[in-house]
Design a protein that fits this description.
This protein is an alpha/beta fold. It has one domain: SPOUT methyltransferase, trefoil knot domain (Alpha/beta knot). It is built from 5 helices and 7 strands. The protein has a 7-stranded parallel β-sheet, with helices on both faces. The two termini are about 15 Å apart.
Amino acid sequence: MLNIVFVEPEIPFNTGALVRTCGLTSSKLHLVKPLGFDMEDKKVKRAGLDYWELAVIEYYDSFLDLYNKYKDKHNFYFATTKAKKRYTDVSYKEGDFIVFGKETKGLSKEILNLEPDHNIRIPMLKDYGRSLNLANSANIILFEALRQLDFEELE
């Protein structure tokens, strides 16, 4: 199982879309509060469709609560447009955590400084000043990790 972390997500659709992805890939979704929406919001529910029963979701009051719980057992990779290392430069392992920040600001410097060698990016136009949608970014990196693990237990 791989782990996707959304730190303080703001847009219900992105989280709902990842519920669907995580459910269909046997990945766990970790959500760090505060959330910018209620998980019962119809936009979240609609994006997740009927995949909610497949998804495993855990909630945390702070990222450090999550990090301290798992850091000694699993790798953490931090998605940011500021990294030099590409997400394809990583050799992912079962149980790894892939961490994403809020849609408007990304991950905080405090989080990015926890393990700077594990900051990763998706290549994209540099001068545009914008980045890919959060759900799309999570899917891109998650599926690379799943590919490296030979899509274990997936058909």
